[in-house]
Amino acid sequence: MAILSDRDILAGMESGYLGISDYHERGLTPNGYDLRIAEISVRGRDGVEKEGTVVIPPRTMFYVSTVEKVRMPADCCAQLWMRTTWIRKGCMGTFGKIDAGFEGTLTLGAFNATDEPIEMPIGERFCQMVFETLSSTSDEDYSRRSGNYQGQEGVTLESVKKG
What we know:
CATH topology: Deoxyuridine 5'-Triphosphate Nucleotidohydrolase, Chain A
Radius of gyration: 16 Å
Number of domains: 1
Structural class: mainly beta
């Protein structure tokens, strides 16, 4: 396993190996890419916020969808890490890996663990994606193994796979 550097990420995008739609240079880090907030769904509220600044009430779960749509090759996955900016404000999140072969936007769950509201601007960087190469290509990538959220767009709380 190897973690891709900024140079590897750029080369991977240029060759078509990796896909990051709506790429923004500010998101590139030495060993990853920061994903931005496209929309937020706050538990207990109807609808999804897609512009402005969203106020997350104290002790409340919320969901973020990414601006970027990612496309992972069959021999690469990615870890997701909340940016320390949000951790320092009291957000907590546990994220899974992006599987080899996944394509779509990401829905990430988080929690305001403080007794104060937190303001989250749409378009702000939320988490870092760190690419890891697999020791070999997967026999069946995400699209073939389960693919429950393949092609998702926006906050998706239930499987989009039909049948």
